[in-house]
Give the backbone structure.
Amino acid sequence: MSPLTTRTQLEAWLIAASTNYSWTWDRRTQQLFGKLPSATAGLHPKIRVRALTDADFDRYLADDGFIEDARAAADRVPNPDPAPSAQIAYFSPEYGISETLPQYSGGLGILAGDHLKAASDLDLPLVAVGLFYRDGFFHQSITGGQQREHYERVDPRSLGLEQMPGIVDITMDDRIVKARVWRADVGRTKLYLLDTDLELNDERGKRVSDRLYSGDREHRIRQELLMGVGGVRALRQLGYQPDVFHLNEGHAGFLALELLGEEVDKGLTLDEAIEAVRPHIVFTTHTPVPAGIDRFPHDLMERYLGVWSDRYGVSIDQLLGLAHMPGEDVFNMAAFCLRMSSRANGVSQLHGSVSREMFSEVPGGSEITAITNGVHSRTWIANDLQATLDDEIGVAWDDSAPGCWDGVDDIADDTIRSVRRAGRQRLVDFVTGRVGARHALDPDALTIGFARRFATYKRADLLLRDADRLTELLASTDRPVQFVFAGKAHPADEPGKEVLSRVVEYASSDAAHGRFLFIPDYEMAVARAMYAGCDVWLNNPIRPNEASGTSGEKSALNGGLNFSILDGWWDECYDGENGWVIPTSEADDRAVRDSEEASALHDVLASEIVNLFYQDGGSMSAAWIARVRHNWKTLGPFVTARRMVREYDERLYRPHGAP
């Protein structure tokens, strides 16, 4: 035992390393936590540290290497600026920071989490705001082939969150709802989450922040008022005076109500207040289809906007008009956000074009630009591949600079083959732990992954439209192919649940030959295992309904090759050699289109992908590895969150006041 280290010191270092969510992308800290007792694996590291016994500490105190690693991990924690100096306020309804902080449902939240991490890496003066959902998002189980949902209460203090002083008040339907504020540190970035589960509230008030994307439209209005209005008030209470307010989707659009109120209170008319506020708001839209936009009936909005019309001294009709979408008789949140913002963007070049057309009749709609989504490299690339890249091409590969991946040409084929096989083996082991041993997965077989929200336009069951060809493919013994699927359907999406059931039914049938698996309860840990273990990432939405999609970007960084409809980010990134395209049908009839695209999918899979993988007789031919290298060189510098956040800073933040 080191005479200079006490149990108190060691515990303090471990707590410091676990409280800041920088551990989610610090490989050495993750390796340190991997040495904690396996019985608590999967829990938040702070919980794991608190669960250590006297015997555990005695063992670690006798290990000088563990002590040094713990001290170094605590020293590496990037502390946020203690002053409320951030000039950019980022608002999002969900944040995918870690599976241990269940405050996300899917792509929107994962993107938000990656945005905060990249902002920390770049030392951007950004603060983030959202809600703390006591029940998080649902956990998924499969019973009788059907999705079942259940929720678990979460304790913010055990997850590294700190309660901030003060209470925020928000008027909702003539009642006052009170919220406390929790802070999560994400590297240098502070994330503030509002929580109404207080004894100061009545039962309805307590439930405002109960679950992510739950309840009826009125419940959604109440959550969005809490996030938008309450979020601005929380920032003001904490001393923040941001120059830029970034709306990650329209769910936070009600923050404009409070910003307008601040200007009206200074003596401005509502029209003058709008002109004063607009230069400070950035709006990112994430949906290419009208059905994805929040719409609220006027009679319901009148109840919740009454307090604001009184404050502004205008009629309810004037406020409702700010959210008017031609051809609709509802309060359209996207239209409201466009009128309230001076800069708006889509999340891929194709999506920007679709958005300009969709909102062409709304002021500002024709000026929507595009910043293509990216992903946080150090969060999503497997640790052993990160180590290989660090050693072989240098640690700057995640900086998104042009040419930073060119060194992959010098990595030996066997090195790439070895690290990719290790990822497949971990996926096989992960699947065995999740779904049991009733499968025939092989760490040397071509592995194809699909993991998404089971919305019908994403067509998770497209492969099954030609089940005979799929079954024949899965039966091959000389060139084995295996599929791993995962994803959740929204609890209220019955058609999506039907698609999921069809996938699960096929996976459990004899036709699947144990080589078509569905992993239940999709979350970030499942995603990381799949990205590291899948050779091909499948994406077959109805074009152009995928705004961007980032799962394929994460797969690409791990050495997976995309096989996708030309939609979202893939539409602008595919170059003919860094993956494959599923040809798009021109048919207007949905059934015909699905049939033609399913047939084209199977054609490319059988004639090109399988042949290339096994071209040399074994796994990962030399030609396949050459394509993996090309994938890295062409996509690696572009698909990163650092590139994305730099674009936001240079094009949308800094030109309008943020330093």
